[in-house]
Amino acid sequence: MNLLTDPTFMAVAVIGVCLLGISKGGFLGLGVMALPLMSLFVPPLQAAAIILPTAVAQDMLTLWTYRREWSVWNIKIMLPSMFAGMFLGWLMAKSLTAAHIRLAIGLIAASFVARHWLSTRFEHLARKPNVATGIVFGAIGGVTTMLANAGGPAWQMHLLPQNLAKLPYIGTVSILFAASNLVKIPGFATLGTLTPDNLLVGLTLVPIAILANYAGIWLVRRTSTEAFFRIAYVLMFFIAVELIRSAVTEL
Fold this sequence. Notes:
- It is built from 10 helices and no strands.
- The chain has helices at residues 7-24, 34-38, 44-65, 72-93, 98-122, 131-148, 152-159, 166-191, 196-220, 226-250.
- It starts with 6 loop residues before the first helix and ends with a helix.
């Protein structure tokens, strides 16, 4: 099937890379929707490979924008453990079917939404961030970003309780995303998902992705995000439920 001539898939892909671009611009969390949405139409690892060129292009722009805003302490702790987690995720990807990965993505997305909705109720139970939490959540995020392009939720569990200023927080997460996406290039190549067809679709989406990234950078400095994210989390929940349903049915 030629995805470039499939209007339904391309419409969904455009929405996905726009969400990813706005997320990388500073609305962190919104980009988690991109892969689950596209995974409703193509296998998850194929969707991740298609997204990769757009993600790398967006990362370069985001890194330049927030190049002076990041936490050195967090990067020193989380980056090595993230690489270790990505290697584990790469090993796991070889033995997992598309249905297993869809189920994992659905559960990750549902957990992310649940954590957001229930965070205020259980905030007092959260462990204070330290070196150990940085290593653990850095590694978990490495596994989930390799399998499901969803490292953000795990990384945020370590970073959010620190109450970093907005821009250093965005800059720190941006470095983790950028480093992980560069590692995915050889990782996905060895898994056989960086095919010419997938790369062509991804490169076609790059201009839209960059425009969305600029929109995110502009909006994050000017916009209140409460209502925007409320809608996004509801949509993500329904996408997660559908992924879980389809995966369980297939299994």
